[in-house]
Amino acid sequence: MKKVFIDGSAGTTGLRILERLEKRADLELIRLAEALRKDPSARADAINASDAAFLCLPDDAAREAAGMVANDKTVVIDTSTAHRVCEGWEYGFPELHGRRERIAASRRIANPGCHASGFVALVEPLVRAGIIARDAALTAFSLTGFSGGGKKMIADYGEHEGDVEYLGARQYALGQAHKHLPEMVKVCSLERAPVFAPVIAPHYSGMQTTVMLPGEIVEGGIRAVENCLKEAYSGERVVRYAESSSLPAVISSSLLTGRDDMLVSVHGNDERILAIACFDNLGKGASGAAIQNMNIALGFSETEGLELGG
């Protein structure tokens, strides 16, 4: 039986991973007593005793924890920003071309950022196919449930429940320096970062990332975009292409709340195209993706323990 340790199991991402894994009979969870949860020696012992260790920690703490590994067996899955563009770490989005095999062979996996997950799912296949150029001037916005901000933001929304400011969507990272931009650029092989607008939506979880594509930067028009994304995710169970006609006329950012899958779709016309990814910031945007990566790395069925739609 494989042993798993969650370093940071009290955080939002760690708690969702714990909830999913506690239901599985094919895993043994290594747990630390509350008094030892932040003890470096106890944490190091737990990490090295595990077949897979999830790092659900702030960036600096994740770097410290990764440095505690003293064997070549433990698979480390880091859910922080710390290692997403680092050499020696595999980017954990298996649906992208060639990555599933690399994840299976890796012992260091960087879980994608939530906003970045939607962006790369839409853009990477289009750039790889030459439908949009690497130097294209891209624009994107992404709505996330407030749980994406962790316990502090969840508490903040609880304290301000009913306040006018918190009833509406709240745009942030206005200085165009969002922490997910480096991975969005690198993974999609872009030559410049997109203009990116992340927005906190007034619901607990759920996510919707939209990339806006003016027709003049798209080779082949809307049909090329549709066909590319349809082909990219053909046969996939976690990321699936959805025909625009199968979705509601008004698409909610909470469409896939509570689930671990993602739907990508294309809307508009040859002049103005919208590519949209719907998922859950705690699902394919964080905990679900981490479990999917663990399943691949440890040889389990890829979707074991995930909550997926039909």
Q: In words, what does this structure look like?
A:
The longest helix is centred in the C-terminal third of the chain and has 16 residues, at about 285-300. Strand 3 (about 50-55), helix 3 (about 60-65) and strand 4 form a beta-alpha-beta unit. Helix content is about 30%, strand content about 20%. It has helices spanning about 10-20, 40-50, 60-65, 100-105, 115-130, 150-160, 165, 180-185, 220-230, 285-300, and strands at about 1-5, 25-30, 50-55, 75-80, 90, 110, 140-145, 170, 195-200, 205-215, 240, 260-270, 270-280. The chain has a 7-stranded mixed β-sheet. The chain has a 6-stranded parallel β-sheet with strand order 2-1-3-4-6-5, with helices on both faces. It folds into 2 domains: about 1-110 and about 285-300, NAD(P)-binding Rossmann-like Domain (Rossmann fold); about 115-285, Dihydrodipicolinate Reductase, domain 2. The protein is an alpha/beta fold.
